[in-house]
Amino acid sequence: MKVLKSKASLAEFIEEARSKKKTxxxxxxxxxxxxxxxxxxxxxxxxxxxxxCSIFVNPTQFTNVYDLEHxxxxxxxxxxxxxNSACQVLFLPEIDEMYTRDEKxxxxxxxxxNILEGKFRKGHYQGVTQIVKKLxxxxxxxxxxxxxxxxxxxxxxxHMIGELNIPVKSIMCPIVRETDGLALSSRNIRLSAIExxxxxxxxxxxxxxxxxxxxKSIAALKKQAWQMLAQAEGVIPEYFEICxxxxxxxxxxxxxxxxxxLLAAHVGDVRLIDNIILK
Length: 279
Ligand code: AMP
Hints:
The chain is α/β, with parallel strands linked by helices. It has 10 helices and 9 strands. A 6-stranded parallel sheet has the order 1-4-3-2-5-6, sandwiched between helices. It has a 3-stranded antiparallel sheet with strand order 7-8-9, with helices on one face. Helix 8 links the parallel strand 5 (about 145) and strand 6. The longest helix has 20 residues, at about 195-210. Adenosine monophosphate (AMP) binds near residues 29, 37 and 173.
């Protein structure tokens, strides 16, 4: 696996691969890699000849300095995990490679950036679209692999790809969970043993919601989930919503073709998100 730090060396490598008619699959990450990330790389290798992964902790998407400073950074183990995966190139830029000073970016995401995550992390999706646009410009992939774990992020990036007519096909990959249900997340490293048991409430609530989805109304499902969240030890909820998978607006059982339940909560000083597709 090649580790490339500059856009120029990346472009050169990709040009060489393109001259051999290779297709390119891209998996952007912020590192602290786990099996969830590796599943995206595995799926990418089924679609594309050349799999490129990036690791870049993007400062512009953090709305909280504490969170940015405490974001786990485990580059040595990330590189050894990637060396044992189907990834052929790691793009590992420094901040100056991706940003010039005092750079401005605003992208019209409409209501999508002010709901769910956006309500609690103002400006987060501006930072996400900014870095994803820069990475797509640098890699110019045929396929982009995104995790369902960040469901709203997938919808936002797909929106940007559509608005800007970026010639890439995005593929949403399923959430990888621990055997006890906890969704894998780089942030889980920061949970203490007891906090980790508290965090299990999140997936339990989502699984319960899915079990009851066929027989309960959306209002009843929400009420039940909020009751469970209120009783969950060590969990401070931010939101629980049941949304139309396309619009992310409140779902109705009759009108929504796809329905997803999404939540965010703090466990200790770690903020976790999770979701489950109901229909
Ligand atoms: P991150 O490094 O957290 O920015 O995540 C990079 C990519 O991995 C994003 O597309 C995430 O949605 C995806 N991802 C994160 N956690 C998981 C998981 N548990 N299962 C599958 N994909 C994931």
